[in-house]
Fold this protein.
Amino acid sequence: MTGFSLRGLRELPWAAFAGAIVLLLAGTFAALYEDALYQSQRAQSALGQARVLAASIPAALSFGDREAVQEYVRPMQVNPEIDAVGLYKKNGLLLTGFTRPQSLPLAARVTDPVRHADASDFVVPVVEHGTALGWVYLRLSPEPWTNRVSRYAVVVLLALMAVFVIAGLGNAQARLRRQSESLAKANLRLEEEIQGREEVEAALRQSQKMEALGQLSGGIAHDLNNHLMIIKGNLHLLKKKLGLPAEDRHLAGADEGINRAAALTQRVLSFSRKQALSPVEVDLNELIHDMRDLIRNSLRENIVVERHLESRQRVLVDRNQMENIVLNIVVNARDALPEGGKVAISTRDLTFDDGGVLQPFVALEIADTGTGMPQDVQARAFDPFFTTKPVGQGTGLGLSTAYGFVTQSGGDMRIRSVPGQGTTISILLPALARRERRDG
């Protein structure tokens, strides 16, 4: 049988195994019953022939006529199932009979005129008018082994069928289980690939969206900045032409509006990565340490500040812009803690595998225990002009400006947030060549 294995027997369902056992037991019972029925019929037939012979020879036996008795015995030799027949006189001595070649000879005297236990030889009395005249002895021939094999062939066939059924069902069950496990693994891999592809596509869409917004906002900011410069220059000329004093409130208000608009365009340019930066070598631990008073003053008394500064490497960034970004994120954390809480600022060194090349990074994380963000807000947190604050309390450029600065500096920015459990903003920046810090 192709593919037969004992493993299939171990994995066979109990119902199929029980069915095969029942089939085998039923076949065995049927074969045994048929054999017992055959033996009983064979014995009854032999006993009937012995009785017929005993009823036919009283006259010949009473006269001791051996030849006449032999005439009754001779026809029985035609039956191959009869091995021997003997006729015994009243005193138990053998009168005549026959035996098959290579069979046991007839006994000289009958001593036990009853049916033997093995149902193969019989002794029947010859009686006439209630008087015993002698005995008829009949012995059956041994059954040919071919007959017995033919009867038990059914059992053998059923046993083989049961074995093949068990093995077939077991192997089929094993194959189905292996196929099911293989399909489950393939399905899991497919789900993981789909999930990974969805994440990559989402990241690509976000990147394309941010790039498009950056190009649009950068172009608008450049044009707006040019117009502001024109307005500011003409306002300066107008002041000289009219001879207005430097402290004129109308000129001061116009200058303040122009300066605010210029600052806004700078933030938009920072988001679009088109702002001119002055990168220097910066130790983020020292930067956070130097800002400790500014950070503390930006928070309320019911907010606890924790610092975990573990980084041992430096980064190349615009220090002033980096301070503004840290301060902006801290202020956002404060707004997310109306009832107070904790703000944790930490730095640590990381390593990312970039196509088999390990790249060192420094991670700056600012975490709060505030209200957190739902998923839809997280997806738009870096969009310019997107804010969840009331009108007049936010421009929506804080995180977008930070994102533009970090990406322009060769890094990345990420948000992890759970509503009701707080928000963690991570800034990842490429590390410079490692420099050991001297303690103390």
User: Anything to note?
Assistant: Residues 277-430 form a domain with the Heat Shock Protein 90 fold (CATH 3.30.565.10). The mean pLDDT is 79.
